[in-house]
Amino acid sequence: MDQFEAFVRLHEPRLRRALSAAYGPVLGVEATADAMAYAWQHRDRILAMDNGAGYLFRVGQSAAARLRRPGPRFVLPEPSIETPEVEPRLIELLEGLTESQRVCVVLVHAYAWTQQEVADLLGVEHATVRTHLARGLTKLRNALEVDHA
To answer: pLDDT, tens digit, for every residue of 91-103?
Structure first.
């Protein structure tokens, strides 16, 4: 396996999750595809970077801005036996968070990323992720009227 293929295997799934957290599953996948196409075209440069995945996250953000369509970004899956019970308003409430808050909340609490992993991908300090996470969770708890002791 060559170096670029190893890079893609490691970072593409994480990049897709992060962009889907930011822009919803449909736009997130499209933005990831654009970012990975960019990575292929500029593979030598991307592989030489300290944080190539973080750079591609920014490329994906630019792609999402170009691709963005009006309407809801998040769509609940059709109910099935495998679908876990989810607060019906959660998707709407997640859309009400800032993009940074939503990305941090979804990656940490839905995908079990560490706060440092999120900080590395976004190219921000760990404290910034902690702040976005705390503010996002506070907004969600307040909207859901959940007491957090």
So the answer is: 889 889 999 999 9
